[in-house]
Design goal:
Length: 226
Amino acid sequence: MKLEERLRTHVEEELSCDPSLNAAGIGVAASDGIITLTGHVSSHAEKVAAEQAAARVFGVRAVVSELDVKLPASTRVTDEEIAQAAIDVLSWTTLVPKDRIKVRVERGWVVLEGDVDSYFQKAAAHDAVTRLTGVKGISDHIEIRKTGLGPAIQAHIEAALERRFGDGTRRITVETRGDHVTLRGVVRSLGERDEIERAAWTTPGVCHVNNNLSVAGPARRRPRAS
């Protein structure tokens, strides 16, 4: 089996094994480590789950999602109902600061606006709304408040990376400029790339992370000498 065929098969198997989605309507194509997902799913939460499942597979360097969300008739609700559900779930989510996020809904598409104190509050708000019935997609315009960063920010991030990944991050460089952080280097998988970015966000006051980490392609077998 060729490398790309094997990668496509592995992604299809990962999708089929994920209990949070129905992979029957999802098509998978693989080219040079780039996975393209096509077809349709029945909710925004399933779309996110499919994208995450594909990214978990070793050898995947990037995921292109062309999935459409087609809501079953039984889950179709009005924009007003979605908006009220979003307001309620945000008020119940302990990580989300109260009265600082506004919600707009248009044809099932949710727009989040406002500001929070950290990346984890922003992620908590996004994740809470993702699972609501009737949501077709989310535009996340939540901003992180600037708090002023001390000179030790780079050391803080590098220490976090060493705690979590050990010597495996020696080839990763961290550059800081104001509230912006840039990550450069090569990692082994998309999952590792995302985890390293998440570690960078743990520094208080970081408002932007430019993740320029590239994923190394899988080693190709050398042809046998005749």
